[in-house]
Design a protein that fits this description.
Elements: H1 26-31, H2 38-51, H3 71-88, H4 92-98, H5 108-118, H6 125-134, H7 139-154, H8 158-164, H9 171-183, H10 187-199, H11 209-218, H12 223-235, H13 239-248, H14 254-265, H15 269-273, H16 283-297, H17 299-312, H18 317-334, H19 339-344, H20 353-365, H21 369-377, H22 381-386, H23 388-400, H24 404-414, H25 420-429, H26 444-451, H27 454-464, H28 468-479, H29 484-496, H30 500-510, H31 516-519, H32 525-535, H33 539-550, H34 570-579, H35 593-610, H36 615-624, H37 626-632, H38 640-645, H39 650-669, H40 677-680
Length: 703
């Protein structure tokens, strides 16, 4: 754990870099003390840059690495930023003067790529190829590869496109390659490769349009294939592609496509079409589509429509099953009286886990323990073994049905797991939780060899310069195809740097789950403890929320606009600040860990108070908003495990389960009094008991 003073390190603001080719004379002397005074060395490095007039923005959490922070490397960082600034302002002479001093600097390929990208159309082919070969594993090289592919395709240099292309570059590049195959005479091969893109039924990049057009003009696309793309597009909700495909159909088929589009826009149109449709290959599939669409809006009307359709038409087996499934699922979501009967009447595919999940949860909501057990037993045994939820609910059903011995056996087996359902099972039989921590063991020598890899060094350099997005890109590419043992080393190295979000995600990718030091770091400990104690909150709960919301990414931004470690919406943060007479933060201020934790913990305390100290409800409200949680409250008291399982939003259901699990683990990590899940999950009080909560904006959290 870093010393307390490091928790709230401020970012050093970035300022324009003057022309400077020499660092101060005192810098090498002081930085030579690095092996013994790592933090002082970091400060001196920054000071050296600031003396020259430039202070790079540093990641707040980065722990300096003496293997990589050498005196020469500090100087190269300064020279790199100078060279980069020179390129950006078009000062080629200064850039070329600095470049020889950066020949062994890890970020050199980014300078070369910037220079090359600006003169790509006039650069000799050999120079571009040499760059791509020399820096093949670098995202900088991939950027040049994409730009050059675009240029070659524009110039219709198809043979060179075929030589340059490599798989994995995205759909646009793939379509450029397919067009090159087609134009170079390899039409059969192009057709084999393009078929999956065509069958996807969704909009593809504009680079794919010439390929599709060439297939159409050649006569290789049949009416059946065009109909297939049309119907797939409607199923996926891409009306634009369907409209385009309508124009590609034979004239006599286009009125049928128009009917499909009408049903897509207004499903009740299906009712008006009944009895007036002449035979056509698309008639029955279209009617099934109408039932599916109508079921999403009005399950009861869809059920009535189905009764009429099946009396007058014979739907293909696959279409009939899809319609009945959609109807049953919609009825279940609405709590329709016919839902259980409809779900029970179907024999779903064993792999249709979404359907199985929906009907089991409906049986749980209805307390039909006989159906819970029967429908779980209908799952493939490997699915039950893989999904802890079904193991738990099978044991619960057995217990409720009076099979106590069998239930106890299954609870005890499940209680070995370190998880939400494992903890629930342990509580049912009074068993200790599995909180075993087995840190990854990697020698310093092996770790140092791993840190010497060019891609890893590039990631570290971007971290040192405060360029976190670029560091993540390098890390992602470097770890994309690593075997598990190397992923463990990568996770350990990221932990060493206090780059906790990459350490967490990389360890998860390895499939190793027992290093709790990496998975549940104790960064920001002082700030969280101070905030929690002042609000009488459980610090381990605050940690659990933070861990689930951002995985310790200080700069986390959700698509909804939530910011920072605890993913606060700006409006929510401002209201909380006013309520507690704190300075109202700017959006950028929410990326400051101290500010974010201070406001996030206060909002959490508000939610807990508004839900009468029911932590499960406050946790759910932090993700989905308090208004929704009040809507989801039962009319009467109910067991909390049943309420959590019935949360309508999958994201919120998963969120609550994870936060409760992390709460238990962080309680152990903080060496506080052990906490049992049963202490938090007595029962959910019904609407008649729960008091109304305060109004206000809702935080938006990411799982």
């Amino acid at each position: 754990m870093p010393p307390p003073s490091s928790h709230w390190r401020g970012a050093i603001p970035e300022r324009p870099l003057p022309e400077l080719t020499q660092v101060p004379m005192f810098y090498p002397i002081l930085s030579s003390l690095a092996p013994f005074l790592a933090m002082i060395k970091r400060f001196v490095a920054v000071l050296a840059l600031c003396v020259g007039g430039f202070c790079p923005q540093l990641q707040a959490q980065l722990t300096p690495d003496p293997w990589l922070d050498t005196p020469g490397r500090f100087r190269q960082r300064l020279l790199f930023t100078q060279a980069e600034a020179s390129l950006n302002r078009g000062d080629t002479e200064t850039y070329l003067g600095l470049r020889p001093q950066l020949q062994d600097y890890p970020l050199l390929p980014y300078l070369l790529a910037t220079d090359l990208g600006r003169r790509l159309s006039s650069t000799p082919t050999e120079e571009i190829r040499d760059f791509l070969i020399s820096y093949d594993d670098s995202p900088a090289a991939e950027k040049i590869r994409r730009s050059w592919l675009d240029l070659l395709a524009q110039q219709q240099r198809w043979d060179e496109v075929l030589l340059l292309y490599r798989p994995g570059g995205g759909t646009a590049q793939r379509c450029q390659w397919l067009l090159a195959l087609w134009q170079s005479g390899q039409k059969d091969r192009a057709w084999e490769q393009v078929e999956p893109l065509w069958a996807a039924g969704k909009s593809q990049p504009e680079e794919c349009t010439p390929v599709f057009q060439a297939l159409r003009d050649s006569g290789r696309l049949t009416s059946r294939q065009i109909w297939s793309r049309f119907t797939r597009a409607l199923t996926d909700g891409d009306t634009a592609v369907a409209v385009q495909m309508k124009g590609w159909l034979p004239i006599e088929d286009q009125p049928w496509a128009e009917r499909w589009l009408s049903i897509q826009a207004q499903p009740s149109t299906t009712l008006r079409l009944l009895g007036s449709l002449e035979p056509h290959p698309q008639r029955e599939p279209m009617l099934a589509h109408g039932i599916i669409r109508l079921a999403k809006q009005d399950p009861g009307s869809a059920l009535a429509l189905w009764q009429q359709v099946r009396n007058s038409y014979t739907l293909p087996e696959e279409a009939e099953l899809a319609a009945r499934r959609a109807m049953a699922m919609a009825l279940a979501r609405k709590g329709h009286p016919q839902a259980i009967a409809q779900l029970d009447s179907l024999a779903p595919c064993p792999a249709d886990e979404r359907f199985h999940s929906a009907r089991i949860r409906l049986a749980l909501e209805s307390r039909r323990w006989d159906l819970v057990l029967a429908w779980i037993e209908a799952l493939p045994e490997e699915t039950i073994a893989r999904e802890e939820s079904w193991r738990y609910w099978r044991a619960r059903a057995l217990e409720q049905l009076g099979y106590s011995r069998e239930a106890t056996e299954q609870y005890r087996a499940l209680a070995r797991e370190r998880s939400y359902y494992g903890f629930l099972a342990a509580d049912r039989v009074g068993q200790e939780y599995n909180l075993l921590n087995r840190p990854v063991q990697i020698s310093d020598a092996d770790l140092r060899r791993f840190a010497s890899r060019p891609a890893i060094q590039r990631a570290y350099e971007f971290l040192a310069l405060g360029r976190i997005p670029q560091a993540r890109i390098e890390w992602a590419q470097a770890t994309a195809v690593m075997p598990p043992d190397e992923l463990l080393a990568a996770a350990k190295l990221a932990q060493r740097w206090s780059w906790h979000d990459r350490a967490i995600f990389t360890l998860a990718k390895s499939g190793y789950w027992d290093d709790l030091d990496i998975r549940f770091p104790l960064e920001y400990r002082d700030g969280i403890l101070i905030a929690s104690q002042s609000l009488q909150l459980d610090a381990s709960w605050v940690y659990a929320i933070l861990r689930q919301e951002s995985a310790f990414m200080e700069d986390a931004r959700s698509s909804a606009g939530a910011l920072g470690l605890m993913q606060l919406m700006p409006q929510t943060a401002q209201q909380v600040a006013r309520r507690h007479q704190l300075p109202a933060p700017r959006d950028s201020g929410l990326l400051d860990p101290e500010v974010n934790i201070r406001l996030g913990s206060r909002f959490l305390a508000q939610l807990l108070n508004s839900f009468d100290d029911q932590r499960v409800l406050a946790t759910a409200a932090y993700n989905a908003g308090p208004r929704r949680i009040r809507q989801w409250l039962p009319n009467e008291d109910m067991p909390t495990d049943l309420w959590v399982e019935g949360i309508p939003f999958t994201e919120t259901r998963d969120y609550v389960r994870r936060v409760l699990t992390y709460n238990i683990i962080y309680r152990d990590r903080l060496s506080e009094r052990p906490l049992r899940l049963r202490d938090l999950m007595d029962k959910i009080r019904g609407k008649a008991v729960t008091t109304t909560a305060e109004s206000g904006s809702e935080p938006s959290g990411e799982g």
